[in-house]
């Protein structure tokens, strides 16, 4: 199986419970995550009565404009990312502050039928795609043969689970960076914005840029007040990129 696009699924979002003794005069449509950030911001000034008569989304736009990003850290969102390569996740996990990760383990999971992610740079060129596919399929065959041989070599290991782990952890060494992986990523809104500003830009590596744009589209639907300022455009390299209207909140 070959992936040409990532798959992004929202797993978890905030559930805001308004305290009865500090009610906010809410205006306009909003999500729990957006209200949580507004409530936190209004608490700082005890402005629950909403003296400026702003909708939640107008209030949060002003927060972004003013650069008061700390209130965005209260709202956490968990996404399941699939159809991405291990090469991509090596870059993604460099984002530390505000992030949590849980990724598929190649020591435990059998990769004899693993999928692979086609690099964006070769998509559409039949000759390049076929050459690349031959290479990754050859690597997968080598993995299967190596794991089988190692299972025989360590037949004396009584614990079969441990023996499989020994074989797979050695066998994975022949698998390419393009091997597909799955990862659960949790981050607060401020952290998501920072990552997307960096990874959706024109200078980002092509696959992580493609993933970033897909995440951005999902979050713009899920929580528009936090990401409406991001503009998706066609860059000089003829690929989509995105940039925020409010820089590094």
Structure description:
The chain is an alpha+beta fold. The protein folds into two domains: 9-79 and 182-243, Gyrase A, domain 2 (2-Layer Sandwich); 80-181, no CATH class. Helix content is 42%, strand content 17%. The protein has eight helices and eight strands. The chain has helices at residues 32-45, 56-66, 86-92, 126-153, 160-171, 189-199, 206-222, 224-227, and strands spanning 2-3, 7-12, 76-85, 99-103, 116-117, 180-188, 231-234, 240-243. A four-stranded antiparallel beta sheet has the order 2-3-6-4. A hairpin with a 5-residue loop joins strand 7 and strand 8. Helix 4 (126-153) packs antiparallel against helix 5. The longest helix has 28 residues, at 126-153. The relative contact order is 0.18.
């Amino acid at each position: 199986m070959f992936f040409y696009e990532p798959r992004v699924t929202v797993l978890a979002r905030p559930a805001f419970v308004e305290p009865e003794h500090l009610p906010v005069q809410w205006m306009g449509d909003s999500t729990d995550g957006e209200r949580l950030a507004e409530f936190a911001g209004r608490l700082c000034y005890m402005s629950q009565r909403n003296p400026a008569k702003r909708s939640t989304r107008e209030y949060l736009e002003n927060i972004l404009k003013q650069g008061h990003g700390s209130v965005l850290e209260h709202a956490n969102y968990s996404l399941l990312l699939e159809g991405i390569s291990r090469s991509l996740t090596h870059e993604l996990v460099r984002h530390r502050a505000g992030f949590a990760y849980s990724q598929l383990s190649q020591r435990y999971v059998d990769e004899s039928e693993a999928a692979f992610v086609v690099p964006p740079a070769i998509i559409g060129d039949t000759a390049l795609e076929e050459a690349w596919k031959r290479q990754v399929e050859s690597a997968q065959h080598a993995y299967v043969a190596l794991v089988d041989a190692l299972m025989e070599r360590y037949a004396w290991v009584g614990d079969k689970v441990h023996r499989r782990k020994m074989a797979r952890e050695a066998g994975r060494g022949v698998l390419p960076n393009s091997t597909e992986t799955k990862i659960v990523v949790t981050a607060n809104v401020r952290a998501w914005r920072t990552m997307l500003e960096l990874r959706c830009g024109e200078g980002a590596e092509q696959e992580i840029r493609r993933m970033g744009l897909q995440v951005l589209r999902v979050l713009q639907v899920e929580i528009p007040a936090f990401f409406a300022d991001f503009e998706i455009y066609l860059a000089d390299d003829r690929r989509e990129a995105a940039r925020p209207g409010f820089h590094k909140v």
